[in-house]
Amino acid sequence: MTIRSAGGAGHARYDEIGRAYARTRREDPRLRARIYAALGDAKSIVNVGAGAGSYEPRDRHVVAIEPSDVMAAQRALELAPAIRASAGSLPLRDASVDAAMAILTIHHWDAEQERGVRELRRVARGPVVILTYDAEVSARMWLVADYLTEVAALDCAIFPPIDRVCEWLGSRDGADISVTPVPIPRDISDWMLGAFWAHPERVFDADARNATSGFARMSTEVVDRVVGDLARDLADGTWDRRHGALRKQDEYDAGLRLVVASPA
């Protein structure tokens, strides 16, 4: 069954961002393990902003919600087809699934952010699992702080503060909510923007850039400036003098946060 919606700006955005997902945004087993643990023993799950299906359990009943045709077309054959709907109006009854998940997606819900998060809580009998970024922390990563400064301002505007997400999930109503920092490993297979912390040379890979919302939202002029400035600083050793110690680190806190809420 397919339910179509206008999808809004986030829909069109992911029609562009999603084109290189199959190569650059592959599911990482360590991150997957964290998400599965947070889902607990839930047998039925709604995955909102499901995209190509990364981190979606294969051994449970999943209702996938994804407005972008480009993203949905990249879903593996063993995954359920995605229902075309938006986060702000989930086509599910109250408490109709055991759990709900939203993985690196709520910042794309635009005007539907609060309503979408509350919808996750409405339809789930058990845990709601959200993976998102703390924009104040992610702004400190060298790529954003030194080169892509426009993203710092953008992220502060589009990523809801973690305490606000907790409020939407019901923190004032006594819901049990945990917020856990998720350090990003050097060798993570999911090339989200935070994963660039260990790989400055990855900035020169157009597919890698374009599969991140940070770069994809920038103008050609900004991207060209970042690529040029970083190329210069790598060539003359400036980057390594400033950030070379990162080459010896196994993981880094780029602001990734796992928010898990259970009903009161």
Can you tell me the CATH superfamily? Vaccinia Virus protein VP39
- Average of per-residue pLDDT values: 90
- The CATH architecture: 3-Layer(aba) Sandwich
Give helix % range. Answer: 25-40%
Number of helices: 13
Report on this structure.
The protein is 38% helix and 14% strand. It has 264 residues and is of the alpha/beta class. The two termini are 33 Å apart. The protein is built from 13 helices and eight strands. The strands form two sheets. A six-stranded mixed β-sheet has the order 2-1-3-4-8-5, with helices on both faces. The chain has helices at 8-17, 21-24, 29-39, 69-72, 113-123, 135-138, 142-147, 149-158, 162-169, 206-210, 213-216, 220-235, 238-243; strands at 44-48, 61-65, 99-103, 128-133, 176-181, 184-185, 251-252, 256-262.
At a glance:
With 264 residues, the chain is α/β, with parallel strands linked by helices. The chain is 38% helix and 14% strand. It has a six-stranded mixed β-sheet with strand order 2-1-3-4-8-5, with helices on both faces.
List keywords for this structure.
single chain; 264 residues; alpha/beta; Rossmann fold; six-stranded mixed sheet; two-stranded antiparallel ribbon; 13 helices; 8 strands; 38% helix; 14% strand; disordered N terminus
Strands, helices and their partners?
Elements lengths: L7 H10 L3 H4 L4 H11 L4 E5 L12 E5 L3 H4 L26 E5 L9 H11 L4 E6 L1 H4 L3 H6 L1 H10 L3 H8 L6 E6 L2 E2 L20 H5 L2 H4 L3 H16 L2 H6 L7 E2 L3 E7 L2
